[in-house]
Structure to design on (524 residues):
């Protein structure tokens, strides 16, 4: 199987705090790879590293064999035309209609006529079920609709790689179901390579071909959904079962409680 | 030792901020010009930062001109020199009040709005999404706003001075009875095009550049939280106002300083 994106021995720190310590990942072409882990471990940071918005302290990130962090700005921008990212907030431009938001990358990067752009945008909107909302402003959309509109924008240029940042966060069950169905359908129809960063276990197990679980700055488990479910790692099991305490402690590190209160006397 | 460490930390932060501000400016200004794409964006921003600031500029200019005429008249009439009211109003506005008050109002009205807008674009990941769509936010967001500020503010300052002179006429001539002929003719003979008008316009270009740069940088560099954007917006107004007042002294000394 061909890898579209390869990460080798990645170390990344921010403000003196190590986020990733020597981790390696493979994103296989045409497959959906999920990156899971507890909140605050830097899953979004991983997407930003993949997209070249952040540079690692050491290690290598390669897109189609080409090192992302060594690229000049112009080359990086060219490569980014084959990538796309669905942001957690949707990140729609608030001063444009939904139609103009989806037309934006087409107008920026192609010389297509307005009539062709109109056709393409309406087709993308039809794919996410929002053709009727083309003339609405982002502020008029619900959270789920905004994310679907952002998804339509993300696939506007037919990218090779699409990165989803917490696509299911804060969604009601219906919106979540719609998004799961859409991601799966679009991946199959467009033969996309997808990276889904999330902590929604149930949803991701249904759409992912391969899963990485990150915690404590490392990859603590990886495999197909079946392999992950049967993992004997207590950390993986705590995460999958949503247990409040375990290897990932309930309490933020602090002094011993007796010491704190006796000391206060 | 704490205070020494604090001074060191603040110095490093300040130098770092200057460095980031220069890099942002270079990225926005020294780039291949995209006239077809950027001209409509710049015109839109001229409307937002310039046209939408007109009301406050016109009203302020009118009242400042009227107050100056009133104050000037009460002093000048004691010396029988009320005929000099015209040049007094015109020179004060063209040399100082026009550029400086317009700059302070521009910082409060347009500068704060620019910072808040760009800061919120950052907080809502719109700037990141532009980057991921291979669109450079420095060209798409920063450059049009920078040019719009530099183009708009000098025009606003000229309008401010013109309206102020008319306000002075309303109070001095129409209300207090100063001779209209002497108001205009002494003004005409006293105001020098290069020394007064052009120097005033040069000042407004400098102020416009500094205010817009500060405003955009503060938004671009803001911590993307509600508290961070609020702080950045406040800093835009405070730093811009201080920069304008400080630069005004330097420019005045250079332009009108006694040799």
């Amino acid at each position: 199987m061909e890898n579209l994106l390869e990460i080798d021995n990645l170390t990344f720190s921010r403000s003196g705090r190590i986020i990733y310590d020597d981790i390696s990942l493979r994103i296989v072409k045409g497959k959906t790879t999920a990156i899971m882990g507890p909140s605050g471990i830097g899953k979004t940071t991983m997407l930003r590293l993949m997209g070249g918005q952040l540079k690692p302290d050491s290690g290598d990130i390669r897109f189609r064999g080409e090192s992302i962090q060594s690229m000049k700005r112009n080359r990086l921008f060219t490569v980014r035309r084959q990538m796309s990212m669905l942001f957690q907030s949707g990140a729609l431009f608030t001063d444009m209609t939904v139609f103009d938001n989806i037309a934006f990358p087409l107008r920026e990067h192609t010389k297509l006529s307005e009539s062709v752009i109109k056709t393409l945008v309406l087709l993308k909107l039809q794919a996410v079920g929002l053709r009727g909302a083309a003339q609405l402003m982002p502020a008029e959309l619900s959270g789920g609709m905004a994310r679907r509109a952002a998804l339509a924008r993300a696939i506007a240029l037919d990218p090779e790689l699409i990165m989803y940042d917490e696509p299911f966060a804060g969604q009601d069950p219906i919106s979540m179901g719609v998004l799961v169905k859409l991601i799966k359908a679009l991946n199959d129809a467009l033969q996309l390579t997808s990276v889904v960063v999330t902590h929604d276990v149930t949803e991701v197990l249904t759409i992912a071909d391969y899963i990485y679980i990150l915690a404590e700055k490392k990859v603590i488990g990886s495999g197909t959904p079946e392999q992950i479910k049967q993992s004997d790692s207590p950390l993986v099991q705590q995460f999958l079962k949503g247990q409040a305490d375990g290897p990932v402690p309930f309490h933020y590190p602090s002094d011993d409680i007796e010491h704190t209160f006796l000391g206060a006397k | 030792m704490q205070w020494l460490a604090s001074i060191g930390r603040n110095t490093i932060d300040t130098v770092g901020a200057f460095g980031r501000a220069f890099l942002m400016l270079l990225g926005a200004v020294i780039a291949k010009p995209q006239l077809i794409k950027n001209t409509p964006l710049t015109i839109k921003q001229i409307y937002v930062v310039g046209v939408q600031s007109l009301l406050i500029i016109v009203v302020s200019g009118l009242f400042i001109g009227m107050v100056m005429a009133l104050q000037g008249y009460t002093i000048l009439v004691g010396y029988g020199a009320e005929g000099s009211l015209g040049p007094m109003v015109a020179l004060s506005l063209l040399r100082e009040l026009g550029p400086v008050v317009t700059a302070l109002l521009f910082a409060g009205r347009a500068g704060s709005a620019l910072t808040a807008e760009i800061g919120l674009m950052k907080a809502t990941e719109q700037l990141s999404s532009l980057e991921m769509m291979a669109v450079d936010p420095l060209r798409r967001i920063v450059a049009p706003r920078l040019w719009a500020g530099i183009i708009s503010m000098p025009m606003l300052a000229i309008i401010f001075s013109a309206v102020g002179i008319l306000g002075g006429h309303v109070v001095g001539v129409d209300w207090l009875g100063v001779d209209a002929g002497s108001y205009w003719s002494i003004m005409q003979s006293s105001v020098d095009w290069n020394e007064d008008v052009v120097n005033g316009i040069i000042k407004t270009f400098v102020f416009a550049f500094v205010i817009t740069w500060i405003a955009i940088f503060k938004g671009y560099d803001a911590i993307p939280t509600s508290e961070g954007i609020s702080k950045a917006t406040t800093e835009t107004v405070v730093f811009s106002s201080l920069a304008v007042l400080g630069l005004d002294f330097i420019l005045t000394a250079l332009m009108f300083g006694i040799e």
About this structure: The longest helix of chain B spans residues 85-123. Residues 220 and 243 of chain B are 19 Å apart (CA to CA). Chain B touches chain A through eleven residues (CB under 8 Å). The two ends of chain B are 46 Å apart (CA to CA).
